[in-house]
Prior knowledge:
mainly alpha
Amino acid sequence: xxxxxxxxxxxxxxxxxxxxxxxxxxxxxxxxxxxxxxxxxxxxxxxxxxxxxxxxxxxxxxxxxxxxxxxxxxxxxxxxxxxxxxxxxxxxxxxxxxxxxxxxxxxxxxxxxxxxxxxxxxxxxxxxxxxxxxxxxxxxxxxxxxxxxxxxxxxxxxxxxxxxxxxxxxxxxxxxxxxxxxxxxxxxxxxxxxxxxxxxxxxxxxxxxxxxxxxxxxxxxxxxxxxxxxxxxxxxxxxxxxxxxxxxxxxxxxxxxxxxxxx
Length: 263
């Protein structure tokens, strides 16, 4: 509980510092929101033109899109600079965090906090629209609401674990932007759509090597199609726990190998 209280205190302090520049804070939120809207509208227009994609309707894709959007926004809100570890390694700014009387990861997670209001709001809107339409058509019941909340929670943990493991690779590679483009950006973009659209080898990568498929697609098979039974949900939770434990172990190993730039 002491660690949680300390994290919340540091989070508030970081947020207050960013709010000193209110225009930049608000403008960045608006621009991020516009980018997300534009990306989804492109997909929606294509699906409205051609209809279902391999049996997945627009509202089902909208559901997948909303779940991963909210999960990513929560992860980037509460652990923003985990994704930006490269700049700390290159500039030597990680050194001051090492001498603070708190875990390095906790200190890093509370740096430059930005709350992604736009992404969370858009994800919620997508889910509300999609789930309402699917409930009207009889494909979903009210039990889908708590299950979806659990999906978002486990999805946030999985995305954080992937981001943390990728960041930890920086202790050996230093420059990890290209790696992040694959493990985070490209994989999350692919997971916005049904994995059945992709060849088997790519599905395997997105389920085993980079398990973003468990953020939304695998549990959605149970929620939307009734496939796999409740084991899909337990399996997703298990993947989240396993991914987090592996990422934390890899982070600790990498941190023990860290060598300062000397700057």
